[in-house]
Amino acid sequence: xxxxGINKVILVGNLGADPEIRSTQSGDTVATLxxxxxxxxxxxxxxxxMERTEWHRxxxxxxxxxxxxxxxxxxxxxxxxxxxxxxxxxxxxxQDRYTTEIQGNELQMLDSRGSGEGDTTERPRESASYNRSxxxxxxxxxxxxxxxxxxxxxxxxxxF
Length: 160
Hints:
The model is unreliable at 118-128 and 134-155 (pLDDT under 50). The protein is globular and about 55 Å long. It contains 1 helix and 8 strands; from the N terminus they run ββββαββββ. Helices cover 6% and strands 48% of the residues. The two termini are 35 Å apart. By secondary structure, the chain is mainly beta. Strands 1-3-4-6-5 form a 5-stranded mixed beta barrel.
C-alpha cells in the first residue's frame, strides 16, 4: 500500500461560543464550531508562566451537526477528529478569499451532561462520542468503575 500523505487533525478544546447551526438547500444540517486550544509553558529566562490560545473553525455535517447543535454550548469541552480543508470564496468586493477549516468526522463530548457555561452542578464524568463514518453512536465508560446507584433515572433524549 502506498501512502501519498495523511491529512488528520485531532483537537481537544473548549467551544468559544454556542454552535452556529444552518441547513443547506438539500436539507443537510451544518454546524460551525469555534474551538480554543491552549498551551502553557514557563519562560526559561524569567520563569514566568506563559500561555498561547489558538482558535480553530470546525465544520460538522448531517447528524453530527444536529448532535452538536442539540448538546454543545459555549464552554463545552470536546474531542474532534477530522481533516483540514481549504475552500475558496469571493467576498462582496469581488476578491477571492481562502478559508482553511477542519471538516470534523468524529465528535466526543468530554463534559458531563449539561456542564457547559453557567452550569456548576457536580455530576459524574462521562464521555460520549459519535463517528460520522460509521453512522453509529458509541459511549465510553467513565475512567473509574463504580457500582451503579439504585433508582437512577435514565429517561433522557440523548441519542447514545
